[in-house]
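Hi there. Long-time user, first ticket. I'm pasting a complex I've been working with (about 230 residues overall). I'd like to know whether the download I got is complete or cut off, because the file seemed smaller than I expected. Thanks.
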Amino acid sequence: AQSVTQLDSQVPVFEEAPVELRCNYSSSVSVYLFWYVQYPNQGLQLLLKYLSGSTLVESINGFEAEFNKSQTSFHLRKPSVHISDTAEYFCAVRTPYTSGNTPLVFGKGTRLSVIA
Amino acid sequence: ETGVTQSPTHLIKTRGQQVTLRCSSQSGHNTVSWYQQALGQGPQFIFQYYREEENGRGNFPPRFSGLQFPNYSSELNVNALELDDSALYLCASSLFRGNNYGYTFGSGTRLTVV
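Hi, the file is complete. Here it is re-exported in full:
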């Protein structure tokens, strides 16, 4: 079974400052890793994913995450945040499917609040 | 390409009642998964449907049941509602054995049990 720990439930940060949202996972097998964002009263949107290959993955809106197998981590970073980045961020894992789609296992989320 | 549509957006039910939530999958997707997101928590997997059959289930009691229809849309039914069932219910569609990241989520149904 897999589990995901998001180490910070809330992260306040000033606009244009850098931010890191931490995510650690536990799994006895290899996993795929994801970050989802949830804006108020909305569903989940995929921010970025790691399936294989380069351990540094980037999103189109400036976020990046680095897969660290030895640390079992997949921390999310952004060098300069905007007010519009205020949202709930969820780290998730799933195992590569063998006979079908495997479910996502989510962390409890980190609420990022960007302060003007 | 249409996204995932869920209805209703909000719902208030009384303890002991039954509820049905609906989900229309994204065009081209043939698998539907349901997740429960309690307040302040991450989403938890309820079950998944493929070819109109349950194809995986999380740690939820049998009073949580579902259906998938030939057009790949789906329903989530919850019987004998309990106060702890109050949550945001998210539907996600994907392509079976398709993209490994290809989950598209709907905006959810907010269920309040009083």
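A couple of notes from our side: Chain B touches chain A at residues 4, 6, 31, 33, 35, 40-45, 48, 50, 55-56, 58, 90, 92, 94, 96-97, 100-101, 103, 105-108 (CB under 8 Å). The mean pLDDT of chain B is 92.
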